[in-house]
Model the fold of this input.
Amino acid sequence: MQQVLEGRIVVVTRAAAQADELSKLLESYGAKVIVCPTIEIRELDNYERLDEALDHLYGYDWLILTSTNGVEFFIKRLLARGLKLADLDEIRVCAIGQRTADKLHDAHVHVDLIPSQSTAEGVFAALSEFAGGQEHLRGLNILLPRALVGREHLPKALEQAGARVDVVPAYQTVVPENFDRGRLSAMLAGSGDCIAFTSPSTIKNLAKLFDTHDLGKVLPGVVIACIGTITATAAAEYGLHVDIQPANFTTADLAQAIANYYSS
Done:
């Protein structure tokens, strides 16, 4: 593979446990990667709402999973409650993208629907089409396990269409306790050429760490790369100009877009 990122330093803000894939892809293009997670994925302090939903699985028509983290923590809790994966057989399952679908398939859970666009808007459009029109969403019972804090677009759109939606937290994203300020300081000192954001939380937590709503002043001269439109919107809200955004919202496409940016 052409080493178009030779001599470039790219900072990856993804959770440490999930940074490997992006890091290796960037390194394959010749980049030096600094992994500086601004989020940590953790179990919830209280599973009461998810447990209640799991105890009444038979009442749902659809299960919607919007991340690989959601899949992991939902299934872990389902099994911890003494339920079986077969208990999901009678429920239709929607996975927001191929990576989420793959995670479900790996766990031997069927997937009925993968939207063409891996966004909340894409999920709503795909569900409406699958049902035979938005009006057919009325009366459906939908379970949406996700992060403790998330976008409200999808549940609001479904409820406006007449569906009943239970949005239940399955995990939480927090600022890492052992945040490596040394690495971040090195980046801010000018050694980092590009910083890659893979979710709105990675941006919001960075702003929290610097107690600012204007990251443009914190990251002057650093090229900003965002995995998709939702992350790019969050970047703009925090004063960042987005230089790189792939057409498809995958890790591989993000790495390719960063390589293309520096080779053009």
